[in-house]
Design the sequence.
């Protein structure tokens, strides 16, 4: 745990001591998608100083949030069950923060892990069933919706409605535009219909 303390016997204070340091929750975010090697974490967080990443991982291990294991002769970092309990916190933060995303700012990147967690954060359970393959440049992920259950993983998916985005799709997910407008303006294209995009927006609504 970080040596910085708040001097308060409070669960919120203790949580911030564990994961409130810079970059901490973004490391947790990426590990919630799956176990990662150090190089994987660096690739997903290219602006993080190497010493900060090493320090955060060490702090997480000491706090029981992360454990190391060997996989194919490489060290892999994986959340413990205690660390994985942060998932609803990270998803709630993602859903709340998505309302302030706006336009993609200079220097900002989008990674597969970011897209996976974005869909998990904004998912609205219901009665629908759907399969989507989302493409953003070279990034490809897929989502399987089975009523109130969601599976999101990297890679393509057979027999899924393909949705290709050419810019962040916040305007569709906030309801600022509908599927027809997204297609007309070139924000997106799909192997399905405008109605498929509208359904996608209902399933992953922002705000």
Sequence:
């Amino acid at each position: 745990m970080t040596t910085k303390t708040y001097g308060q016997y409070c669960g919120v204070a203790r949580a911030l001591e564990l994961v409130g340091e810079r970059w901490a929750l973004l490391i947790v975010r990426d590990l919630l998608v799956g176990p990662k090697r150090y190089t994987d974490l660096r690739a997903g967080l290219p602006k993080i100083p190497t010493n900060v990443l090493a320090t955060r991982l060490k702090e997480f291990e000491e706090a029981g949030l992360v454990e190391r294991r060997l996989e194919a002769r490489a060290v892999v970092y994986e959340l413990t069950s205690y660390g994985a309990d942060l998932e609803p916190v990270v998803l709630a933060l993602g859903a709340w923060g998505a309302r302030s995303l706006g336009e993609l700012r200079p220097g900002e990147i989008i990674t597969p892990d970011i897209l996976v967690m974005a869909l998990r954060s904004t998912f609205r359970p219901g009665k629908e069933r759907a399969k989507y393959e989302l493409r953003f440049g070279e990034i490809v992920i897929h989502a399987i919706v089975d009523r109130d259950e969601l599976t999101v993983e990297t890679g393509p998916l057979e027999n899924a409605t393909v949705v290709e985005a050419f810019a962040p799709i916040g305007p569709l997910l906030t309801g600022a535009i509908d599927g027809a407008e997204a297609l007309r303006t070139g924000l997106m294209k799909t192997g399905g219909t405008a109605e498929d995009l509208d359904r996608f927006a209902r399933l992953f609504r922002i705000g």
